[in-house]
Amino acid sequence: MDSRPVTVVVDAVGGDNAPSAVLAGVSDALAKDSGLRIILTGPAEVIEPFAAQQGDRVQTVACTEVIEMDEHPANAVRNKQDSSIVVGARLVKEGKASAFFSAGNTGAAMAAATLVMGRIKGVQRPAIATVVPTAGPPCVLLDVGANADCKPENLLQFAQMGAAYATVVLGVIGPRVALLNIGEEPTKGSQLAQAAHALMAERLPHFIGNVEGRDVLAGVSDVIVTDGFTGNVALKLLEGASMILLGQVKDAITSTPINTAASAVLKPALNRLRSRLDPDTYGGAPLLGVAGVCIIGHGSSKSTAVASAIAIAAQAGRGGLTEQIAAAVADN
Questions:
Q1: pLDDT tens across 181-232, in order?
Q2: What are the extents of the domains in the chain?
Q3: Which of 35, 133, 164, 265 is least enclosed, having the fewest CB within 10 Å?
C-alpha cells in the first residue's frame, strides 16, 4: 500500500448516519493507512473529543453551521460559509488538504466543490463518476447525474477525465473507453451520440466504440461515457437489480432446511459476490473536473463506505488525479 503522507478533509456531520458512522469510518481508514492524515470539519462538540483520542493524525476545524440534507444546494453554500461542507472545500482550495469527502447534501457538496475549489482550467462541465462491478475488473461510468443535457465536446471531456480516474485510482494503464449507445455501429443513436462517437474516435487513442446497456457489466471496457440523464438511469437500474438479485438469492438458499444446510458450502463465494456488488466497497462518487479531489458519499453511507471513500480520496490525492485530468483536458 502507498503510505506517502496525504491529508483528506472529512465532513463529520454529513449523511443520515453521521456522526457515528463517519467517525467509525475515519478510525478504520486510519488503521489501514499509516500515511493518512485527517482534518475533520463540523461542530466542535462532535469532532474535538474524537480527535483528542486519535493523536496528531487527526486535526479539526470547528464549524458553526451545517447544511441539512433538504436545503437548496447553491443557496446553502452561498449563505452558510462556515458550514462543514464549504469549509472542507475551502481547505482543499487553500492547499491544506489533497481531497475532501462528504456524505451530506450531494448538491451542496457539488456546489461547494465547483464554486469554492473552482474548475480545472479548460473543463467545461464537471461530471460525477462511479465505479461499477463487472464480470472482469471494475469499470468507471460517467456522467451519472451532474449534466442532464450535454454536447459532444462534454462527452469527450468526460472520457478524458474518466480515463484519468481509471488510471490513478483503479491502476489501469491505457484504459479502454466506450460510449454508451443503443447499438454498436457509429451511425446508431441520437445526434449527440453520433457526433460524440466521431469526436471520440478522432481524439481518444483507446476508444473502442459504442457499447450497449447489456455490455455495462460485461467488462468489455474500463470507462463508459454517457450524458448525466442516461447515466443516472443506468446507475439506479444497476443498483436496483443488484439488490433484488441478492435478495432473491438469499430467499432461495433459505427457503427450505435442505437449502439452508447446503448454503453453508456456498457462503464464502456468496459473500465475495455480495462484496463485489455492494456500493459500500467503492465508497463514493468522485466529482471530476474540479480543482481538487472531491468524493461524494451516499447519504446512507455506513462506516464501511466512509472508510472506502477516504481510501479512494487518499489514493486520488497521492496519484495527482487533479493534475492528470488537467493534462488530459489540455490536449484538446
A1: 999 999 999 999 999 999 999 999 999 999 999 999 899 999 999 999 999 9
A2: 1-120+289-319, 124-282
A3: 265
SS3 sequence, 173-225? CCCCEEEECCCCCCCCCCHHHHHHHHHHHHHCCCEEEEECHHHCCCCCCCEEE
Split at pLDDT 50, 70, 90, the class of 249 is confident
Q: What 3-state DSSP class applies to 141?
A: strand
Q: Kindly give, in sequence order, each residue whose CB lies less than 8 Å from that of residue 61, ignoring residues fewer than 6 positions away.
A: 39, 40, 41, 87, 91
33 vs 19: CA distance, rounded Å: 21
**CATH 3.40.50.300: does it fit domain 124-282?**
no
Q: What is the CATH number of domain 1-120+289-319?
A: 3.40.718.10
Beta strands in 52-173 (DSSP E): 58-62, 99-102, 127-132, 139-142
**Structure confidence at residue 97 as a pLDDT band (50, 70, 90):** very high
User: Is the pTM of the predicted complex or chain greater than 0.85?
Assistant: yes
| 96: helix, strand or coil | coil
Same fold for the pair 1-120+289-319 and 124-282: yes
C-alpha cell at 231: 447515466
Q: CB 209: neighbour CB atoms within 10 A?
A: 16
Residue closest to 213 by CA, chosen among 233, 197, 195, 196:
233
Confidence of residue 274 (pLDDT cuts 50, 70, 90): low
pLDDT of residue 233: 93
193 and 178 Cβ atoms separated by less than 8 Å:
no
pLDDT above 80 for 147: yes
pLDDT score, position 253: 77
Q: How far is CA 80 from CA 64, 68, 87, 189, 234, in A?
A: 9, 11, 9, 43, 34
